[in-house]
Amino acid sequence: MKRVFLMVAAAAALSLTSCNESATAQIDEANLNAAADRDAVEASYPVMTFDTPVYDFGTVSEGTVVEKEYTFTNTGDSDLIIVNASATCGCTVPTWTKEPVAPGETGSLLVKFDTSGKPDAQSKAVSITTNTKSGQEVITIKGFVAGKSSMPNA
Q1: Separation of alpha carbons 154 and 150, rounded Å
Q2: Which of 31, 46, 57, 94 is a Cys-bridge partner for 76, taking CB atoms 3.0 to 4.6 Å apart?
Q3: Dist CA 122 CA 21 (whole Å)
Q4: pTM for the structure as a whole
């Protein structure tokens, strides 16, 4: 009786293995199709291309508000959307195009840097959260701020 039971169990295991192999083949094909779909979507990311990603404002007197309008072009294959733009300190404030930027079209970001209380060499990065492949782009505003004590007749 034990022998009959073991033979039936072995036959059942073999039939399950062959069923699982065909199910695995279907899953692999489904995964292959999903990967191909993902790769097709990946190829259609927008690309944010700046005319000038780094702006050097030179030397200014402390207390000056430096403004730079960064222009960019969507050189990708789908609409570019800016979700957010922020700097590491409150002295640098970005404003940006709120509407989606179609492929081939341009948009802009205006960055204002208040130099009050910021003497010496300065470099401020603005992080832009987008729907590009990397998900984040960075622009920089930099220069030298002449402190009030180093200015003549101060």
Answers
A1: 8
A2: 46
A3: 63
A4: 0.69
